[in-house]
Design a protein that fits this description.
The structure is a single chain. A hairpin with a 5-residue loop joins strand 1 and strand 2. Helix content is 53%, strand content 8%. It has a domain of 111 residues. The chain is elongated. The longest helix is centred in the middle third of the chain and has 33 residues. The protein has a two-stranded antiparallel sheet. The protein is mainly α.
Length: 173
């Protein structure tokens, strides 16, 4: 037989979660804070925050869009930094110390990264340096044997490898 517990006159504990708190968390995330840090900053436990999100599923897309916006901004600056580093290593280079046989510094030499230069060129001029083959449009062409000889003769003459002209047929009497 189950034990019944009488309800107390005291109401349950009030939750710290509110729409205003949620909006502050979202604003912190949009400003670049990690989600966990933004939740902790508002003085609420992670489990409480996510439990309320389960109860109010209409808030989830708002949180996700804030996280995506934050990540786009973070990644954009990281990509720009990486492009600058590619340029620096591939084009500008860097100096390395040169030591003599006794281990004493005797100068410096400039080093460059060919791989960084290749990636930089592929990113900024893909029409020339891309690994993808150029698109070939296939057409069907019918060339007769006589026409083929004329075309080849024309190309050889353009390239400077002139062939003697074929002997002219003599007219028969």
């Amino acid at each position: 037989m189950p034990i019944t517990v009488p309800k107390s006159d005291k109401p349950g504990r009030l939750s710290k979660f509110s729409t205003a708190l949620f909006e502050r968390v979202v604003a912190d995330i949009r400003d670049g804070a990690p989600t966990a840090t933004a939740i902790e900053k508002q003085g609420i436990d992670h489990s409480t925050f996510y439990r309320h999100l389960q109860r109010q599923p209409d808030l989830v897309p708002v949180l996700q869009s804030a996280q995506l916006e934050r990540d786009r901004v973070r990644n954009a600056s990281r990509i720009e930094d990486a492009e600058q580093e590619l340029k620096r290593r591939g084009i500008d280079g860097w100096t390395e110390p040169v030591f003599d046989a006794k281990g004493q510094l005797c100068g410096e030499r400039r080093r460059y990264s060919d791989a960084c230069l290749i990636f930089f060129l592929k990113a900024h001029k893909p029409e020339v340096y891309s690994d993808k083959p150029a698109t070939v449009v296939a057409t069907q062409v019918n060339i007769t044997a006589d026409r083929e000889k004329d075309i080849m003769r024309d190309w050889r003459s353009r390239l400077g490898a002139v062939e003697p002209a074929p002997p002219a047929k003599e007219a028969s009497p």
